[in-house]
Amino acid sequence: MIPLFAQIAIHHESFHLRLWLPLFLIWLLLLPLVLIFLPFVIVGFALTGLRPFRAIAAMLSVLCSLPGTSIDVDHPSGLVFIRIV
Amino acid sequence: MPENRKQILEMLAEGKITADEADKLIAALGPETADGATAAGGKAWPRYLRVLVEAEEPGEGDSLTKVNIRVPLQLLRAGVRLTSLIPPVAREHVNAALREQGIGFDLNQLKPENLEELVDQLKDLTIDVDQPKTKTKVRVFCE
């Protein structure tokens, strides 16, 4: 399943940021662009000697594997937290 | 309960197969079951690779930096598939760079067929590095 949300939190001294990014909206917005550029991407892969559909499948596979990823860095001067749901 | 496992147990209950045969069939189904437990030992199948780092900042007293990373093993599998996108010339460059660092690893050997074996080995992997001088602790494990 593709990632639907990303949670990002950054705290550094007086700077505080806490975001819930609705990634599904971003995918929806990107979808028309992807469809437009897909033929060019396929031709580009073919020109570089890569199998285009295999390459696209591999990239989709990486994208779909992202949910569950979590990165948490707690430093005395700040904190960064990224979580993909 | 997965359908295949249920069928085997039903066959056992009906007396169509013996307990030994049922055991062999269940073992042949593979390690993963619906609830994520192994068929043989009941141990949970790992889903994530965890990296925990604790390091004391030099010259800042007791201040401690903690890093906690959780990566789905599925991402590892997908990453290996991505190696097929690396052009052969670039692969040779990477292999040469690895050899220079004393790492005799050939990227061409990294194929999806071999990946399951690699992930299977990872489930028992735990790396603990404890360096008292710099008060740094690193822990890598699967969960």
Give an account of the 3D structure.
The complex is a heterodimer of chains A (85) and B (143). With 85 residues, chain A is α+β, with helices and mostly antiparallel strands. Chain A has one domain. Chain A has 2 helices and 4 strands. Chain A is elongated and about 50 Å long. The mean pLDDT of chain A is 89. Chain B has 143 residues and is of the alpha+beta class. Chain B has 2 domains: 1-45, no CATH class; 46-143, no CATH class. Helices cover 38% and strands 22% of the residues of chain B. Chain B has helices at residues 3-13, 19-28, 73-82, 88-100, 112-122; strands spanning 48-56, 64-72, 126-131, 136-142. In chain B, strands 2-1-4-3 form a 4-stranded antiparallel β-sheet. In chain B, a hairpin with a 7-residue loop joins strand 1 (48-56) and strand 2 (64-72). In chain B, helix 3 (73-82) runs antiparallel to helix 5. Mean pLDDT of chain B is 77; it is low at 33-41. Chains A and B meet through helix 2 and strand 3 of A and strand 2 and helix 3 of B.
Features:
heterodimer; A: alpha+beta; four-stranded antiparallel sheet; B: 143 residues; 4 strands
N-to-C order of helices and strands of chain A: EEHHEE
Please tell me how large the radius of gyration of chain B is: 22 Å
Domain module tally of chain B: 2
Helical percent range of chain B? 25-40%
Q: What is the averaged pLDDT score of chain B?
A: 77
Secondary-structure element order of chain B, as H and E? HHEEHHHEE
First-to-last CA distance of chain B: 22 Å
Widest β-sheet, arrangement of strands of chain B: 2-1-4-3
Give the neighbour order of strands across the main sheet of chain A. Answer: 2-1-4-3
What's the rounded overall pLDDT mean of chain A?
Answer: 89
Oligomeric description of these chains = heterodimer
Largest sheet of chain B: 4 strands, antiparallel
Largest sheet of chain A: 4 strands, antiparallel
Interface with most residues? A-B, 24 and 24 residues
- List unreliable stretches of 5+ residues of chain A: none
Please count the beta strands of chain A (DSSP E, at least 2 residues each): 4
Name the beta content range of chain B: 15-25%
Total individual domains of chain A: 1
Contiguous helical run count of chain B: 5
